[in-house]
Fold this protein.
Amino acid sequence: MDRLITQDLAIGYDERLIVDGLNLSIPTGKITALVGSNGSGKSTILKTMARIMKPQRGSVLLDGKAIHSQSTREVAKQLAILPQNPVAPEGLTVRELVGYGRYPHQKGFGTMSREDREIVEWAIEMTGLVSFADRAVDQLSGGQRQRAWIAMALAQQTEILFLDEPTTYLDMAHQLEVLKLLQQLNEEQGRTIVMVVHDLNHATRYAHHMVAIKSGKIVAEGEPAKVTTKEVLREVFGIEADILFDPRTGVPLCLPFELFRESLRTAKNREHQQVKSKQEDRAYGKQANAVTNG
Amino acid sequence: MNAFNTRHDAANARQMPVKGRPLAAILIITGGLAALALAMAAATAIGAADIRLSTVWDALFRFDPELSSHHVVRDLRVPRALGSALVGAGLAVAGAMMQGMTRNPLADSGLLGLNAGAGVMLAVCFAFFPQTPYILLMVYAFLGAAIGAGLVFGIGSMARGGMTPVRLTLAGAAVSALLTAVSEGIALMFRVGQDLAFWYAGGAAGITWPQISVLWPWIGVSLIAALLMSRSITLLSLGEEVAAGLGMRTRWVKTAGMLVVLILAGSSMSAVGSIAFIGLMVPHVARFLVGVDYRWIIPCSAVLGSLFMVLADIGARSVNPPYETPAGALISLAGVPFFLWLARRRGR
Amino acid sequence: MLRSKKEGKRTAGMFAALLLVLALALAACGGNNNAGESNGAASGSDNAAGGTNGGTAGNGAEQEEAANPQERTLTDALGNDVTIPANPQRIIAPYLEDHLLTLGVMPAAQWSVPNGVQDYLQAAGLEGVPTISYNLPPEEVVSFNPDLIIVNSPSLVQNDLYSQYSKIAPTFVLSDETTADWRAALSKIGEVLGKEEEAKAALEAYDQKVQETKAKLEGKLEGKSIAILWLTAKQFYMVDTKTASGAVVYGDLGVNPPNIMTEIPEENRASWNPISLEKLSELTADYIFLVNYEEGQTDSLIESDLWKTIPAVKAGHVYEMDKNRSWLYSGAIAGQLVLEDIERVLGE
């Protein structure tokens, strides 16, 4: 049975609801990827599931208990969240940062116990940062920095780990570095991982479970192969794409080749009809630009 | 745990080893306290009136109410030194907490509208309730600081995309300018410019025992509260979402923290007037010396802030004797170049 | 500080002057009604009042002048050639009213800060004369339709103000040096108004008065020293030997200035020397003349234990001078009032 589910969740800022009536279940011990276009509400859903945002209605249940009404510190022993693009204070070392992951387990003034220290060193080792442990986080490369933050979340020793766009702003090698680490954590330690990712191919390749979201609603969910269809991509991202299957792994790969928008279709029609007029050509160029930009 | 085996790698790293920081902090706190004791002794011994050390000693331990030199030591110099120390600690810790909570390296009671807000309230007091007793004056300064800070944070967070250090600083500058104009308007209309001018100049010269007796419980309790909150402040300095994810009640901590800041800054300002830059400079120096952990930054800021303020006050009476030079001006003289240096370093 | 001593002195002096202006504004709350009522009443009575003044010059001189009108051209401190009208009737000479009254001339408007005037001159004849703001706004000047403007400092006509004033009426500027010495100022204004004789007579009368006072106090001031203190906004100022009542007491009567004055090098002294309570504790003067703007304040500095240990205070030799007296002003009238006060206090 899934440990974490949402019931009739409604989330919004002020009056405006971004998410309304969301029922979502996170498979335990799997990697779940939330995908959707910008502004679809996937980040908001992630934050609410990790209780750093409050829902306006409904609840998030962890083992059957609403997390928003539990002690936030107790919840922090069950689930950890790594926000999007966190920034460490200048001069904070990796070991110091990871040490803060022990916060929910400590009392009072926060003196590190022997156990705490061991867990910190273990998290540093897990993330391959041993030789960087005493470096300032702000002086590391993007990938190392993200691994340091993941190490902090690891030190929190939670079954469930939320990550909001952990690969954004990283180059390709660093993206892989982070995703492989997450995969390893899942496989070796059975952690439940929920992440928002932008790159569909990362989702299909590393996630066991995909949730496609549009306007705060679930459009499709399930195994990547089931979710990654032409129809879903058109609906969720507004793109036309070919779906291939990686010959090595059998994982679906999506190759977008065209935007799917009403406005673009009319523009294309015009192009066919009036291809000879240079003036019209120029006008189309403008319009097409406008469409891609929008 | 084979992580320990590879630990020697860390020795190659450029950064100071993590264990050195508490050591540095303890050194600073003990050394700073010793220096503070010396500075306060000097502040008691040095002044416009020429009083021999033996007389100073007698004034403290064999007080003779008939001797004016004994009164100088007891009624003027000692409260002045104590007051400077209290206020210096208060302003520095208030600045450190603001910088941590807002993650804004430029946060300071002067830059975030607290000084200007307190100034307006004091102008109102001087204009409409000229006989306000000191304790009420302090409460008004505190309220004014709250109003100033409220306006700055309100405007700063109104902008789309939320509060960034730059927005906050801009809002602070705008609100401060507005509130200062209001104070000056009140000063002109109700002819309290003289009282206000002294307040804006800033200095510990007027601190008396009755003021100290009101001041120290507030600042003392707030400093202890700041110390107790220091770990939470460190977490907040990692970012609000990170702190919330780690199980901290961010709203509660921010509210309590702001309250402590307002009490510290408001009561300090009611005693010595508008002294900018201690709250900005001292925490940066502390952070430079002991790293990013507010459990160390806050006590170090308190000690260094006290020391700095006591020294500035000694400077205030030694620069051009027998005249007093406003300590606020002396501090700004050191503070402005520091501020520019900081802004430049940040800009890179 | 970084500035030179000379500059420091000037700045201190300007600051003190500013303070005086502010303090007068502050102190003169009670005078508000007077000024308000008089504005209406005095509109038509300026010339009539000329004959009723309590100054020293006689009416005969004025008639003589009126009988023999002649336009003259004089060069002022800025090198302007100023054509003085034959018989100026509507003179504006802010802060020079003491001299005008001495010469038997009633100004068209009198100097004021927002609601304060020169209190001591009201009884001497200015009662009922409308007020003009100390900084002489041109619109206000125009509204009085003056036929002669006399200004006591080049600093008042900076930024092209001179040309604005001189379009309204001939404007004569006194140098700061002249203004600082009331005898020179009186003589100069006598010259401008063609009343040299009256000026001379007034000076002689004053010197006569000085001699009389000296005679009355014969032996009583031998080897004694007097301190003249002004207390306002929790700050004591020591009146310099060349200013206001200081010029009378130390200059004309030849009384010794107090030890804490002579300890300050002459080039560092300002007109009003701010003096800390701490320095004041070393005061050995035999008598203190105190102009107290903190009258009735419970937390006033003169309620402090330290003040009460000062020898002159212990001996009961503190004489509080009414705010409405002339101890902070210069001029023949101001000086004579000071002489009267001293005679009354020490002469019995």
Summary: Residues 172-189 of chain A form the longest helix (18 residues). Chain A has a mean pLDDT of 86. The first strand of chain A starts at residue 4 and ends at 13. Chain A has eleven helices and twelve strands.
